[in-house]
Every structure is written in C-alpha cells, then in structure tokens.
Structure prediction request, 463 residues.
Amino acid sequence: MPSGPDGFVADPRYRTEFEKARGLVLAHPRRWRVIYHYDADGIASASSALRALARLGYPAQATALAGVERERMRELAKRSPGPLLVVDTGASWLDVFREHPHPVVVLDHHTYPGVPTPPALPDHVALVNPLDWGVDGMTELCAATLTWLFTVFLDPRNWDNAPWGLSGAIGDRQHVGGFHGLNATLVEEAIRRSVVVRKPGAALFGPTMGTALTDSIDPYVRGLSGRPEAVGRFLDDVGIDAARPPASLTPEEGRRLLDALRHRLADAGVAPEAAAVLDQDRWFVPSLGLDAEEVSNRQSAAGRAKMPGVGVAYALGDPTAAERVRLAEASWRGGILAGLRRLEDEGVNSMSALQWFESPDTTLAGTQAGMAILYLLDPARPVFAFSNGDGPTKVSARTTLSLVARGADLAAACRIAAEAVGGEGGGHRVASGATIPTGTRAEFLSAANRVIAEQLGARAEAT
Prediction:
C-alpha cells in the first residue's frame, strides 16, 4: 500500500495542481482565512485544513458560506488582508480570486464553466479539482477527502485527518454502496494505519432498538420512521425487544431484523442501491469512539443549526463543542423526521419532468429532499425543495444516480433555470442548489422542468 499521496492518480495534472497549491501554502507562513461551505462536507474540509495549518504553525480563521453566494465571497476576499484557502466552494468564482492581492488556494469538487479545463490562472491562484484529472467529484472524491489528501501533501502526519475525510464523504453520500475510486484508496490507507476500522453492522444508531429505528432517517422506513408505536409493533413481530441496545442483538436476530427491514423498503418501492445503505460496511473511528456516520451527522447538524464553527471546533477537540454538536444532532434529526413525515402524509407537487415541495426548514430542505427522493418519492423525477428565509429563495435539488446515468444533470438545470430568473445555481449532477429572487419560483420551475425533460429526452408539460 502507498504511504503518501504520490502516484494515486496517473494524470499529470493531479500532481501539478497539488504542487502549485502546496507551494503557495508553504511559501506564506502568515494568517490564512479558510472559507468553507456550511454543510457536513464543508465543515469537515475546514476541520482538516485548520488542523494542517496549525501543525505548520500558521494562525488561521475560518468563515462559513451558507450557499451560492458570489457577492459574499467577493466581500470576504476584499476584507481579508492575507491569503485564502477556499474549500468545498469557489471553483465557479475564480474570476473573483484574480483580484485578490494575496495567494488563493481553492480545493473544490464541484463543476465549473469549462470543466475539466480551468481558465488560465495567475501565479497566486491555485485550483485543485478532481474533475481536472479524471476523478468524479460526485462519487469518487468530495471536498473533505480532497482536503484530507491535500493536507497529506503538506505533511504525512495529516493521515490522521481521516475521520473528517470520511465525515464529509458520508455527508455528501459518497459512501452509498461502499467507497469508490480515490475515496476507496484513501480509506484503505486509513484502515491500514488504524485511524479507521472497518466493521460490519446496521445503520441504526441509538441507545435502544426502538429509538434507533424510530429515529432512522437513512434509511427512512415508510410507516416506521418517526412512529414509535408502529416501531414497537414491528419489533414485536420480528421477536426483538424494543428496549434492547442494538449492539446486544445476536447474529441471527440481526439477520432477521435486516431481512424484515429489506422487505419493508422493497415494498415501499425503494431502489436496491438505496436500501443497501442499511447493512453495508461501517467505518468506526477509534479516536472518537463513534461510527463515522455519527460523526458526519454531528457536523451536518452543526451546520444546519447555523453554528458551523462549532462543528469545526468539535473536530479540533473542543469538549464543549462535542456536547453542543451531540445536542444539535438530536434536533437536526427531529427536524428531518418531521419534514419527511409531512411529505409521506401530504405528498408533493408534480410536473412532467420534476416534483417539488416547500420546506419551512431552510437549513434542512436539502437533506429532506435527498432522503425523500430515495425513500418516499417517485425516483423517475428529480425533486426540488424551496425555502424562504430572510432574503432570496433557496432551492435544493436532488435526484438519483440512475437518472444521472440517463442524462440528468441538476448542476446544469439549476444554473440555467436560476440564470433565467436573475439568480445563481450550480453543484453536482445528482445534487445541486440555487438562490433565486423572491417571487420567481414558477418561472424557475418552468425552466428547470424544460431543461430536465430535454436531458432525459422527454417533452416538458406542466401537470
């Protein structure tokens, strides 16, 4: 197995991009501003970056972005008197960084205009993006695993950033079906170094079986998740006491439970690849005493609770932050469950090529959409969630990998539809978002419906 990052990817642009970025960081031992997206992937990326900068002896401050915010990025750059390290965002705003008088390093896995050929960049700006060297940023490398890899380029001691690499990858759902591509290479190296331990087990977390299944959102089990009485009856039928801890089940009891849950998911029309998350390999983090998915959920909850800095502080070892993210995770899970139950009970709005709903939970809409398309809604049409907080309307769009294989590209759909109404959008083919002016939802939906229909070879007709 490899002991460092050399040779992981054959494309020469791999080393070229990393070496330019490393050179800029090592040549500027001063205060860096780390700018990151506020979701689990962004928080995990910032966690690794800050740990690596601290090891270099560099002071740093971290600032979160809440969405697709070009002007906010421009403002932060103007206000920053030193170099910038931008993670999980920034690839679409390279023109903004040209104007910055200090070094800028962008570590991003999202698509950008002209991908996979970035524009010519000045010497003080470095872009590292897996799409440039033939690695799929949607399934094979997220921002957190990219940042983890970059920190190893800086110093091999940073292999211990593995928990945060996995946390971000799970937050971006790149673990479904097991890790692939460069993610898998990194995880295997972390296992070899005993930073992470592979374990069998079910994706059910909680002090008792009843709580674990009632609180389950991934998978969300129609008729059970969020319904403690129904869970009690289900477990009685399976012959398992709801008060028992999940870890106490015998292998035979575990098989019986998983078989019953698989049948339940299949009867609900859940695709086998989505249901597989129930009992695929688990990754345990010995230093934290938690499954990596639990770590991811806590960082995701911190971001959605509008305290991403606490999620970062948790990763950096702050015990007060650890307790705060644990409490935030319970609230986050409850909000997602409430939203999914609402969708299960009330349904969504339909158009010919997409489906959509309103979410009162601005920070949870994307997660609700992602879980809903897998476990509740028609998988043949992408789903769009709209939320209105202070200011413009936020849009979160999610689809399935099966539709992506057929041609669906939500990054393009969100960008085109948002531009049609004076907004801005982008992301990944399978998961994307947009920010649009208030009152433009109908026009945005019409444009998105048309684009998706064209992508899938269908004719767009609103229904």
